[in-house]
Amino acid sequence: MKILTIADDPSPVYYDYYRPGKLDEFDLIISCGDLSRHYLEFLVTMAHCPLVYVRGNHDDALIQDPPEGCECLEDTILTVNGLRILGLGGSYRYKKTGQSMYTEAQMERRVRKLWWKLRKAGGVDIIVSHAPIRGVNDFDTVTHRGFECFRELVEKYEPKYFIHGHIHRSYGVNIPQISRYRTTAVVNAYDHFIIDTDKRIEDY
Q1: What DSSP letter does each residue of 32-63 carry, written as one string?
Q2: Nearest-5° Cα angle at 43, 41 to 44
Q3: What is the CATH number of domain 2-203?
């Protein structure tokens, strides 16, 4: 299964320089947030596969005006082609206003409320977030801090992939696009990254 993951900035490859058929190879598109409604609608219109998304810290407008043809992953588990996908969007709260920002305690409560869905699904294969795991691909600054509860979630359920945005690779030369936390492949979907579920993390 080939998955196009995207976040934060529209990818020129799939937007500015798009050519018919460019998206035909994908079985699923996953958006990790901070992308416009129009961009998501463009992709799902041109592709022949589902597009699922979580909201980023700049995506409050999508709460009232969600992208047509796309499926919101927030606080739920969707099964797509046999993969159980959990969504937890938003970033660490760094200012008082903003519906898509959370304190550590608030995000932890969101995770706890998912216990029955996780039990019913028998676990999860992919976790999709906007923010990273605390201590994995994040920064110490409050604006780009990850969540401790994400680390606990990954340790407990050992998903194959944890996919996030928020950490722009333009922030530094040593920001990885794919790494590992224990047995989980951690993907920074900034701009875009292609996942082939038949590959091992070492093959990327």
Answers
A1: -S---HHHHHHHHHHSSS-EEE---TT-THHH
A2: 65
A3: 3.60.21.10
